[in-house]
Amino acid sequence: MSLSISLTLNGVVRDIVLDDPRVTLLDLLRERLALPGTKKGCDRGQCGACTVLLNGKRMNACLTLAATLDGATVTTIEGLADGDALHPVQTAFLENDGFQCGYCTPGQIMSAVGLIAEGRAGDDPERIREGMSGNICRCAAYHGITRAVQEATRRMAAAERGDAA
Amino acid sequence: MKRFDFVQPASVAEALQVWHPGAVWLGGGTNLLDLMKGGVMLPDTVIDINRLADLRGITTLDDGSLRIGALVSNAELADDTGFAHDFPMVAEALLSGASGQLRNAATVAGNLMQRTRCAYFQDTTAACNRREPGTGCDARGGVDSHTAVLGFGDACITTHPSDFCVPLAALDAVVEVQGPDGAREVALRDFHLLPGETPERETALQPGEIIVALRLPADAKGFAAHARYLKVRDRTSYAFATTSAAAALRVEGGVIAEARLSLGAIAAKPWRVTEAEALLVGHAPDAAPFDQAAARALDGAVPSNDNGWKIALARRTAIRALELAAAGTPERMPALPASPFADQNGDHAHV
After folding, report:
1. pLDDT tens digit sequence for B255-272
2. In terms of residue numbers, what domain contains B24?
3. Is the ipTM of this complex over 0.95?
C-alpha cells in the first residue's frame, strides 16, 4: 500500500510521503507543510475555517483525507496573493471590515473566492449570505463579509470585462 | 480516528473484491469522516472509490431517463442546467442541504447512505439500537426534534436526514447497485428501511454491495412546471430539516392530472402515500384538495417522544408545498432554496 502522493500546492508540485492514512488535508497543511494559514475550528465540517480550493472548488480540508489527493491541485490562503499584490477578495475584506479577530478569515476568503467562481450569487446580498452559510464567524462580522463579497464580485467582473477595476 | 487500511481500487470489480466486513466505501467523505472522528464508525479498511470513472457523469439514456453516476457531487448535479430545468424540485432540495463546501464534496450515492443525525446515535455514550443493537434508545425520552411520527418502532424513532431523497421518492427514482452476486436495481422508495426490530439495518443494500448510479424516469420531467421542495428548519440555511415536503403537479386545463407528494424528516425514509396523491387528481389546484391530501399523507402519525407538534407542522408543510407547486416553478432558483421565507417567484424575502 503506497501512501505517496504528488499534488500541486499553491502552484508548486509537492511529493509527499504519508506515514498514516488518517492525515487530513488540514493537518497535512498545518503540521507537515508549514502552511498554518488554513485554520482548524471544529475539525468536523461545520465551521468552514479550514476551507481551501481543491481542484478549483471550495472544500472543507478537515473532511478530506490527504491520501486521496494524488494528482490534485490545492490552493490555500497562502497561495492567493500575487506576490505583494493582494487578491481582490483579500482587498475587499480589508476595506469592508470583513473580520474582527481574524480566525475565520482565511476560510471566509477562500469560500468567497469559491463562491464567486461558482457564479451562483452575483452581488445579491441574500444569495451571498446563503452561499457563505458554511463559514461561521464567531465575532459576527457578517455584514462586512457580505459587503466584501459583493464588492469583490463587482470588481472581478469589471476586471474580466477589461474595465479599470 | 481509529487506524485503518487505505486502498484505492482501479475498477468496480476490484472494489467489490477488496470489500470485507469492516470495510467502508469512501466517496465524498463528508458524513463518514465526521462519524469516524467521533468514534461512531470504526472501519478497519477505507476503500476510496473516487478513482472509479464508471461512477461519474450525468447521461440521458435512450428511453429518455436520466442516469446520474454515484460519485456526481451534489453541487455538480444541482448546477447542471439541463437537470435543474427538468427536475427543479430535486435541484432545489440539493441546494437547500448542507453548505457550499459540503455540496462540492458530498456525492449523490453518499446522500442516500448518510446516517441519521439523531443526537443519541452520534453520542457514543448514549444508548442507541441503530449504532449498537440491543443497547436501547435514549432518543425515546430524550430531547431531539429529528425524530419520527410515522413508521417508527420501540427500538428506534429516528428519521432519515436527506433532502435529496424526498423528491427522488416522489419521482420514482431507481438505484443501480452492484455486488458480489451481480447488478440489480432497487426503487428509491424501497431503498431505506423502517427500523422495526432491526434498526441497525438501514438500507436495502446487502453486505458488499455498492451504489453505481441513480436513474430518474423520463416521465418525471412532466412535472417540471409545477414542482417545489419546501424545508422547515431551525435556521434559513445550513440546517437539517425539521419537516419538509416535495410537491409536484401536472396541470391540464386548470385541473390536476397527476400529483406527487413526498414528506421528509418525519420517518426513517421519505414518506410517500400514493392514496394522498390520488385525492388531488381531477381537482383544480385549491385549498380543499390540498388539505385532504396532506391529512391523508399524515394518516396514522403519532408522537414518538415530545414531538407531537411535528404532525401539525408536517401537514402544514405539505399544504404549503402544494400551494407553491400550484403557483408554478420559479424561473430562477429562489435566493434561499426551499425556504418558507423565500418568495415563491424567486424574489427576495427579507428575513
Report:
1. 999 999 999 999 999 999
2. 5-51
3. yes
